Amino acid sequence: MALGLRADQVTWVGFVLGLTAIPLIALGHPQWAILSIALNRLADGLDGVMARLTRPTDLGAFLDSSLDFLFYAAIPLAFALADPTRNALPAALLMYSFIGTACTFLAFAVLAAKRGLASTAYPGKGFYYLGGLTESTETIAVFVLMCLMPEWFAVLAYGFAGLCALTTATRIAAGIRAFKD
Predict the structure, then answer these.
(1) How far apart are CA 147 and CA 35, in angstroms?
(2) In the Cβ-directed half-sphere of 173, how many Cα atoms lie within 13 Å?
(3) I need a surface site. Which of 3, 92, 113, 158 has the fewest CB within 10 A?
């Protein structure tokens, strides 16, 4: 706005800044990647504020959600690249668990929109926002821990994947309750 940027442009800038964590982690500088993660999250918060101050758009909601999920997958990928022998399997499992949380989140949103359901818990979101145990704040906290203690990546990844599995299960249960005819 002040710099002439639109909210969706800030979303893209934040995504690119977040992706700079990949080479930092892969090349053995995970502590520096915390800055990339923080800048990504700052842009993610700023784009939403900008959209609400101007005009929220479907494109903005689409980009925000899509690029967030892609960014989340980038961090485990980076740790797998940094030490494939120790980190590839836990990174793969964590990314698999992210697919579960993302699919259930988005599938619920699509069907809720089709049925005209609205979220009272998150009225400012661009679509029906189904919460869970592992959301953005928890994900970023785990990413920061991974960057501060990269030798614990596998343990943290396995543990967080388990929590993501619980989120996926609770969202499936919510979908069954909401959409059972």
Answers:
(1) 10
(2) 8
(3) 3
Q: Taken in order 145, 16, 93, 173, is the CA torsion positive or negative?
A: positive
Average pLDDT value over all residues in the chain: 92
pTM metric for this prediction: 0.90
131: region left, alpha or beta (phi > 0 left; psi from -120 to 50 alpha): beta
Q: Where are the domains of the chain?
A: 7-179
Whether the CB-CB separation of 119 and 129 falls below 8 Å is answered with: yes
Estimate to the nearest angstrom the gap between the alpha carbon of 45 and the chain centroid: 13
pLDDT tens figures, 68-80 = 999 999 999 999 9
Query: Residue 129, SS3?
Result: coil
Per the listing, tokens 């939403």 go with: 48
Place of tokens 């989120």: 167
pLDDT of residue 92: 99
Task: Report residue 126: phi and psi, to 5°.
Answer: -75, -10
Position 124 scores a pLDDT of 59
- Helix %, strand %, coil % of the chain (to 5): 80, 0, 20
